[in-house]
Specification:
This protein is 87% helix and 0% strand. With 192 residues, it is mostly helical. α1 packs parallel to α4.
Length: 192
C-alpha cells in the first residue's frame, strides 16, 4: 500500500502540473504571433491529451501503467474530477481564443478549483487511510490479547494434570508418613 501512495502522490503532482501547463499553454497561444499559432495550438492539444490520459489512469486505476495500482480507494474520488477537468479545458480554449479579462479570470478560477478539488480528494484519502491504519492497529492489539489469553489458558490446562498428580503424591506421602509414625510409635511403646 505504501508504494502505491508514493506513486499516487507523484500522479497527483503531475495532475497539478498539467493543469497549470494547460493554463500556461492557453495564454501562450492567445499571445502568440500568427506565425506560431499553429505550433502553440498543437502544444495546447498535446497537453490536453496528456492531461486527460493521466487523469484517466488515476480514475481507472490501470494497474499496468506503473502509476497507480488498481485500488478501490482511488477511483471514486478522482472520478468526480472529470467535470472540473472539462471546465478547465473549455476555459483554456476560450482564454486562448478570446483576449478578455473575463476569459482569463475564468481559466484561473476553474484551474484553481480543480487543484483544490484534487487536494480535497487526496486529503480524504489520507484520512481514510489513517482510519484504516487505526483499525488495523486495534485489530492487531486484540489479536495479541487473545493470543496471550489463549497462552495463559493453555499453560493452566497443561499444568492442571501436573498439579493433580502433585496433590496425589503429597497425599500418598502424608499417608505413608502417618503409617510410619504409627509403626514407630508402637515400637517405642513396646520397647519400653
Amino acid at each position: 500500500r505504501h508504494g502505491n501512495d508514493i506513486r499516487l502522490a507523484n500522479a497527483v503532482g503531475r495532475e497539478r502540473y498539467l493543469s497549470e501547463q494547460l493554463a500556461s499553454e492557453a495564454m501562450a497561444l492567445r499571445d502568440a504571433p500568427d506565425a506560431l499559432r499553429a505550433q502553440r495550438q498543437r502544444r495546447l492539444e498535446t497537453t490536453i491529451a496528456e492531461w486527460r490520459g493521466t487523469a484517466a489512469r488515476l480514475r481507472d486505476g490501470i494497474p499496468d501503467d506503473g502509476i497507480v495500482d488498481a485500488d478501490p480507494q482511488t477511483a471514486p474520488g478522482f472520478a468526480g474530477l472529470v467535470s472540473l477537468q472539462r471546465e478547465v479545458i473549455a476555459a483554456a480554449r476560450m482564454a486562448a481564443d478570446e483576449h478578455t479579462a473575463a476569459a482569463d479570470s475564468l481559466l484561473a478560477t476553474t484551474q484553481h478549483r480543480y487543484v483544490m478539488a484534487i487536494d480535497r480528494v487526496v486529503g480524504d484519502m489520507e484520512i481514510d487511510s489513517a482510519r484504516r491504519l487505526d483499525v488495523l492497529v486495534l485489530v492487531e492489539t486484540l489479536c495479541v490479547l487473545l493470543l496471550l489469553v489463549a497462552l495463559g489458558l493453555g499453560m493452566r490446562l497443561a499444568l492442571q494434570p501436573t498439579y493433580a498428580r502433585l496433590l496425589a503424591t503429597v497425599q500418598a506421602l502424608a499417608d505413608s508418613e502417618s503409617r510410619t509414625r504409627a509403626v514407630l510409635d508402637s515400637m517405642q511403646e513396646g520397647m519400653l
